[in-house]
Specification:
Layout (H helix, E strand, L loop, with lengths): L2 H10 L7 E5 L17 H10 L4 E4 L1 H7 L9 E4 L1 E3 L6 E3 L3 H7 L3 E8 L4 H16 L5 E10 L5 E3 L3 H14 L3 E4 L5 H9 L5 E4 L7 H13 L4 E4 L1 H4 L4 H14 L3 H10 L2
Parallel strand pairs: 1-2, 1-11, 2-3, 3-6, 6-7, 7-9, 9-10, 10-11
Antiparallel strand pairs: 4-5, 7-8
Length: 270
């Protein structure tokens, strides 16, 4: 590993715990039900998130150009480079590793939906990103989701351990530096996958839960598995008290707090 990549990865995993609690605001083309309410005022949401000091924030190029200059250097940022949907109705590059370096990003994120007839094309795109990023000593974070095509033509993201293990293996084989993948829902099965992976595994925040305590219970299970952390979107900015949600996730991920204790600490402002 080159020095530049090591410096950038150390920024992302700078917390003394060695764990990673990041926030994603890259919810755009991939979500076909309209713009999420928590991101309609993206500038205001980013202001609240930055104040809470997550380990990184993931966003697309336009959001970085428009909103990030005032926060430059205060929190690491990860450039999301793909516009994609699970059903392949969108699958386009939006940024390159060179863009990421020029914008000051600490890593570039790419996307792969595995399973189905286009699986190899998704994995090839990740491999291309890794190859291009090597020239810049830029870490590549893979956001990967196993999917299943149903008889009625619909597509769903699946969380079965074998499917999650396969998604992680695809990332391993093309040489990414960090893998973000859905949680299986069980610390034991997720832990087996984490232990078999030579690079850090972080869990995707997943669909919006009905309550913050429920989301924190998921986070607690993720950390019990030995994963390096989580990247969370809707289960932070999707709740009315964004600052408290972020503080509670940080308490679980960095300090090993129980969901109940994390909520109490967040409410007190600890």
């Amino acid at each position: 590993m080159g020095l530049g990549k090591q410096v950038r990865l150390n920024r992302l995993f700078a917390h003394p715990s060695g764990h990673f609690c990041s926030v994603a605001v890259d919810h755009f083309i991939g979500y076909q039900l309209g713009l999420p309410a928590g991101l309609r005022d993206l500038g205001g949401t980013l202001e609240t998130i930055v104040a809470g000091r997550p380990d990184a924030i993931s966003m697309h190029k336009g959001a970085a150009l428009g909103f990030w200059p005032r926060y430059a250097g205060r929190v690491p940022f990860i450039l999301q480079s793909v516009l994609g949907r699970p059903d392949d109705t969108a699958d386009e590059p939006a940024a390159t590793p060179e863009d990421a370096v020029r914008l000051g990003a600490d890593a570039i994120a790419t996307l792969a939906f595995v399973g189905g007839r286009t699986e190899a094309a998704h994995v090839r795109r990740v491999a291309d990103c890794v190859r291009e990023a090597e020239a810049w000593d830029l870490p590549v974070i893979l956001h990967t989701y196993p999917r299943r095509f149903e008889a009625d033509g619909s597509v769903r993201i699946v969380h079965e351990p074998e499917d999650i293990a396969w998604a992680v293996r695809c990332g391993i084989e093309v040489g990414v530096d960090v893998i973000k993948v859905p949680y299986t829902g069980d610390p034991a099965t997720y832990g087996q996958i984490v232990r078999g992976c030579p690079v850090p595994v972080v869990a995707a925040g997943g669909p919006k839960t009905d309550s913050l305590p429920e989301a924190l219970r998921v986070a607690s299970g993720v950390m019990a598995s030995g994963a390096k952390g989580m990247t969370v979107g809707r289960n932070i900015w999707g709740f009315p008290k964004v600052a408290q949600a972020l503080a509670a996730f940080k308490a679980v991920i960095h300090d090993g707090a129980t969901p109940e204790e994390a909520l109490r600490r967040a409410e007190r402002g600890d």
